[in-house]
TrEMBL record:
CDD domains in UniProt: DHNA_DHNTPE (cd00534)
Single biological process term from Gene Ontology: pteridine-containing compound biosynthetic process
Catalytic activity, EC: 5.1.99.7
Domain Dihydroneopterin aldolase/epimerase span(s) in chain numbering: 11-121
Protein name: Dihydroneopterin triphosphate 2'-epimerase
One GO cellular component term noted in the UniProt record for this chain: cytosol
InterPro entries, per the entry: Dihydroneopterin_aldolase, FolB_dom, GTP-CH-I_C/QueF
GO molecular function: dihydroneopterin aldolase activity; dihydroneopterin triphosphate 2'-epimerase activity
UniProt key word Isomerase: yes
Keyword Membrane: no
SMART domains: FolB
Family under the similarity heading: Belongs to the DHNA family.
Catalytic activity: 7,8-dihydroneopterin 3'-triphosphate = 7,8-dihydromonapterin 3'-triphosphate
Organism: Phytopseudomonas punonensis
Length: 123
């Protein structure tokens, strides 16, 4: 992850729990499962800090709502695909300089709490 430079802000969304169809086994294809999503987003926040105005800030609520709609409204065979599509939604915003998305699939393995995939993008 890039170092946080002066004037930049780091937004973290932690443990966004959603339900979706994720997997390749018949049981996974037919039944929604929980996924946990963690986001880290870096963007220049000088104008937002100076003006104290949402129009100059990166609206994490808008981004999160787009993610919720996409994840809950689609089906995914692989965690890699789901993670990339979430990253793409975050990177649509031109203000985003760097983003990291981690998606956990709880109880994907018999003796593990979860399995996760992390992908990153930058401009």
């Amino acid at each position: 992850m890039p170092r946080l430079e002066p004037g930049m802000a780091r937004i973290r969304v932690k443990d966004l729990r959603l339900r979706t169809f994720i997997g390749i086994k018949e049981e996974e294809i037919n039944n929604k499962q929980d996924v946990l999503i963690n986001l880290t987003i870096l963007y220049p926040a000088v104008d937002a800090v100076r003006d104290n105005d949402i129009d100059h800030a990166l609206n994490y609520r808008t981004i999160t709502k787009a993610i919720i709609g996409h994840v809950e409204g689609n089906r995914f065979a692989l965690l890699e695909r789901l993670t990339q599509e979430i990253l793409d939604l975050v990177m649509v915003n031109e203000a985003v300089r760097y983003a990291e998305v981690e998606v956990d699939k709880p109880h994907a393995l018999r003796f593990a709490e979860s399995v996760s995939i992390t992908l990153a993008g930058h401009r």
